[in-house]
BRO1 domain-containing protein
Amino acid sequence: MPNHLTIPFKKTYSCHIPIATRDYIRNHTEDHPDAYIRDVNQWKALRDIGTGGVLHADRINFALAYHAQLVFILAKLPSDINLEFSYAHAFASNPSSLPVTLRSITFERASVLFNIAALYSQLAGSEDRSSQDGLKRASACYQNAAGVLAFLSESALPKLGPFVDSENIPSDLNEDFVKSLEWLMLAQAQECVWQRAVADHYKNSLIAKLAAKVSSLYNTSLLSIRQAAADTRDALPPNWIPHLETKHYHFNAASQYRKGIDELEASRYGDEIQRLMIAEADAKKAFNIAKRAGVAQAVISDVKSLLDVVQKNLARAERDNDLIYHQNVPAPSGIPAIQEVSMVQSIVPPGLRDPKSVIGDDGIIFGEMLGWGAREAINIYNNNKGNLLQEKIVEPAQNFNDEADKILQSLNLPSSLEALERPVGLPPSLLRKAEEIRLEQGPTKIDVYLDDVQRLSRHVLGILDEAMDILDSEASEDEAARRETPMNRPPSHEANRELVLKQKRYRTILTQAAESDEVVRRKWEEWEDQISELTRDEDELEALVPSSTVSMTGKAVSTSQTQIHARTLRGLLESLDDIRRTRDDLVVRAQGRAESDDIRPKVLAAAANLEQGIEMSAVMFEDVSDNELAKYDKFIQGLTEGRKKQEEILSSIKSTNDVFIQSRKQDPAVRDREQALQFLDLAYSHYREIIRNLDEGLKFYNDMAGILTNFKEACKIWSSARSREARLLHRNMASLSISDNASDESHEVPVSTTSPPRTSTRKQTAGVPTLSSADWEAQELAPPPTKRIKKTTKNR
């Protein structure tokens, strides 16, 4: 039986690489899945041979090549492409134990690294350490195993955390656990060096220093595993930690024994006795721990041999000192500590540091695909561009126009001016507005839009109700399953808390949207008759507006002054129209720029300058995105300058209008005509506002339907995963019960009345991410602002 520990493989299970990869490429890239059939097949073939499980030196190269491909794959694909990887715990005592299943390529990479370390450790353990060459090879493999574990800890585990909730990370990939294994591999490598030194009859002082380092390394491994969580420690075999304790005391005793011989040779007989006393005490501790905990017999034999030698030498040293030397025996604190000498280190295989060096002739998998970080950067840029265009250009331009319209309406402009300029007939501007409503069949269009909005509102609410029905159904199944089988997992009302909270947010948004819809409906009911009047023929519409006999050709002084103010006012209104046209043209040009704007070539150029194989993220392309978005600054600046000019003109319009009103004769016929024209103009403004509100409402509900469909699908996936997990737990408990019953019958022990044994406390993900994961996130729409009937401007 060997006196070293080796790391077992993490057993893996088959996964559906072709299906998940094809779906991801089709749904998230611009490429066709068929373009990557060869890459997918290569990935599948490499995984079959590179995921461990076979003890042979040739498998190292296959595993390193597979790890290298995973590094390049993660540069092209996100960690979660809806591809499930399943691995059992490396130290699972029960072959039927539930594996941990995660949708994470990063988890696959970490597990592959773990198995590479396990393979190195097992190759070291299989060496014949009775020969010098065997010791050399064993020490080298142990140092490689330590190097792989160090690389796992520094390179893979930190990247696993952001994609997997900490409570779902397997305990054998816990940081403390991995570091403990690394120190163990170094301790066993150093032990091989010590064994060679003993065999080659090196000086006792040097052998003592080598043994002291062996003891220290075993102790560091022991301390690291003791810092780990309880479930991490409990997953180890029962004799694992005692083995580390035994080795720690054993080699501390061996170090003191060898240093004692060195003291004897230097005639320091008192120091020799003290070191032998320390060695005896530590050897006894090691022997007692090993016997009590069932450590391997080879380890017990080693300790017993050392204890016998130490006790024999201690008896001789005390006898000689009592009879011959008569030196004082110092206290333990009175002798110098043994200086440790390390001859080993964590050696990372070159293929891990430089993954490209182990890629074969088949080339890099998905080598021609644009990296997912670059794709995400393009998507983020397009999203930011759309937001900037809408929030900084389109909406402000509309707000500036609405602001001017509101002020003109409050001043009864241009109706009062047109009533004076055209005492009979209809102003051309009003005729154009009426023609627009007639061509659009305005009232009918609004009725159809209102029905569509109401229908979509019911539809999206139904989707949300269906999602909650799925969660309710899962909760009922969970309650029924708990009545049949005790389950150590959170009940549904705890496990689905975040989904339920998200549902409440969605429902609040829909409630606010329904309130906004009602505001729009009431506004339509209030203005329906007036808007409908604008659909009449020109003759009928003209009959609604009273005529006036006031003319611009009057000779009175007051009339002359009115003409002057009217012309000034007309000039200001035309200047305001020029600003509006310039603003509208600026918006059109910005939208045209956005439509033709393609950042892809610049992102591709930036990606080409990055080191191949690194995991790209969108953050790496922020400078490119910022530079491209800066192209829209001139449009934003143009809007700002236009608003300043508009404010100046509006201020002049207000003051000129006041003078115009004072100079105008207060003819009731003129006043009636002004009010009629203003009322029709206001009806047109409300028509455009209602149409705009309804357009926004339709877009809102269509977007919300997509978001809630994704949410419903997330609930379905989560519910299916919970059901699958419940079935697995039930089968596991059933098999455990059958095994217990068989054991009871074979020993003829009466049936226990205590509660049934509990299964492993580890939570199983069954392929579904935690609810706090970003996997469940969709682009959420903000709650629509409350609308008031009296406002003439309404935004959803």
The domain at 17-358 is CATH 1.25.40.280 (Serine Threonine Protein Phosphatase 5, Tetratricopeptide repeat). DSSP finds 24 helices and two strands in the chain. The chain has a mean pLDDT of 84. Residues 668-747 form the longest helix (80 residues).
